[in-house]
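User: Can you predict the 3D structure for this chain?
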Amino acid sequence: MNWKITQIKTLDTPVAGTVVNASFSVSDGTSTIESDTNLLPPDVDSFTQLDAATEEQVIQWVKDALDDGVHEEEYSNVKKYEDMVAQKTGATQPQITPFPWQ
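Assistant: Here is the predicted structure, written as structure tokens:
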């Protein structure tokens, strides 16, 4: 699955440029699902300045936020998004059928 960040929203607390929300897409090359999530509060001891953040890092912040509070035995929210994309791709598409009365 391919995760992409499509938009970020920031606040100036606790540090200027703190990313607090990220919009993202998950795609398998055929189907795509888009959503957004509020991120977990930043760790001030290991804070990454906005201009130093990478897309991979923000994707990890998104995944961490999605799975916050999910226990190992529970079904991961990250996995749910990936499964929704796979299900969308694998779904049988209905065909347009002429009316039987024509």
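The longest strand covers residues 2-11. Residues 2-89 form one domain.
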